[in-house]
Amino acid sequence: MEYDKAAFSQFCAPLWLSKPYMQDGHNADKTNATVTFVTFQNKGYVVTCAHVYHQQKVGSDEFRDLILFGETSLIVSFSIPGPSGIVSAFRPLISQEPKEPGPDIAIAPADHAVKMYMKANGKKWLDLDKWEEPDWKVNSPKIAGGYATEHKDTDGKYVLSSFLEIVADSPSGVDPTRATFMLFSELDKEHKFFFSGMSGGPVFYQYKDDREAVPIGIIYEGSPGSSAEWRKRGEESFFSGTDIKVDAQLLTPDVFESWLLKAGFDV
Question: Which domain of life is it from (predicted)?
């Protein structure tokens, strides 16, 4: 597959947590996650994390919508009518949090509105139908990308979402038989970035030669997470301000098919 090594942002977008009908407006302080656009067996899907879905508080009076909101001001809502009112179009693979066993993944079908958003905002599919298995024995750096919720700005008219691209090592490599893997790197100086909001973003396997990068994961956790959590850490904390840690769910065509089946999609 031909991926632009400098433009992994084309495969994902910020996913905003908003009160219904955007009653809370749209500004740089609004919480976001990341959604990745995936096509499998010629069908399109949007992928984020189950813990993002659970932040919607589905079924409560505090329900919040997950939306795409791009440069063209097209709003794509993932709320749909349900038997007892409005529900989320995302299907989580774990029914509750925290720490229920299973993939921290939620999936929604990509409808016409999603495809319109993608076209208007220059987004592309991660095409798992053309996926080529990487050489897992070559432990090269991996690239993780997503939209960090604390690194946004505004020009007075638009909210400017910063896409972070993290290049990090996988200390023990990536085992294709294991459901998750970790990326970790230590920098020469403090980076002062916080990775909350990158959940749902893609991870790529980057060869050291000219071969193209291959998608191999979906981010579900990063450290440092939020600045508030970082300030609360004790002196005995294992991580310092120079460290980067990313945890991801393994993504392959077989894994994705198992997610779809678990979520109740027809495959």
Answer: Bacteria
- The CA distance from 33 to 54, in Å, is 12
What is the number of structural domains in the chain? 1
Question: Which residue type does 90 have?
Answer: F
Parent domain of 26: 11-263
- Highest average pLDDT, of 16-20, 82-86, 98-102, 206-210, comes from 16-20
- Is the whole-model pTM more than 0.85? yes
Q: Which positions ≥6 away from 67 have C-beta within 8 Å?
A: 15, 16, 18, 22, 75, 76, 77, 78
Question: What's the CATH number where 239 sits?
Answer: 2.40.10
In a domain, 84, yes or no: yes
Residue 130 lies inside a defined structural domain of this protein: yes
Choose among 211, 189, 198: nearest CA to 246: 198
Neighbours of 33 (CB within 10 A): 26
Amino acid at 113: A
pLDDT tens digit string along 44-65?
Answer: 999 999 999 998 887 778 888 9
CA dist 21 and 108 (Å) reads 20
